[in-house]
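Example record for the data management plan.
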Amino acid sequence: MKPPGGIFVSVFLFAAEMVAALYLSSTYQSGGDRMWQVLTLVFALVPSILVQFTLTFVHRDVSRDRPLVLLLHLLQLGPFVRCLEAFCLYLNVGKVEESYVSITRKKHLKKSGSSEEIEKEVGQAEGKMFTHRAAFNRTSVIQAFIGSAPQLTLQLYVSVKQQVVTPGRGVLMVISLFTIVYGAMRCNILAIKIKYDEYEVHVKPAAYICIFL
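Corresponding structural encoding:
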């Protein structure tokens, strides 16, 4: 099982952008820029709420008895809990014998152009990790295009209007830009996997760099 590096990157960008947006909104409040403060908070909180709903929906927490997890999602702390769960799951792989496995069939494309069907056993831990990865792939896209893109546009407009880029605004714009690029990359990879769903798709680091560029 691969380490959940993508999950960590998603949570890190989510947290960094939220902290930067809260700090910048406080500076807008100190400067009397009420409208910029409200818009900065809106573009930070709306995607955060959608992220919480997405994680709850994918993991089907509403139908399960997990009141503490639901409470943490209401407090906008859901991504941190999910990230911790994913890392605990990864660290405990192989330590506990799994009583249930499922069989998946995927086509493997050879270099010659022919394909063969391969059966693979998927344990409970790997299935749960797949759910975590799928959830954070979707939240990265939501964060990028519903939160970071409007946020970057707003801060660029404010910078042009005021003809100055403050350190707080500059940091938020850089983080938003990275979030947009990462979200676009995850969106492209999701599209590839959806198109070739019956095939086993492995994206190598070189391919990630090409998509990033």
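Summary line stored alongside the record: The longest strand covers residues 101-109.
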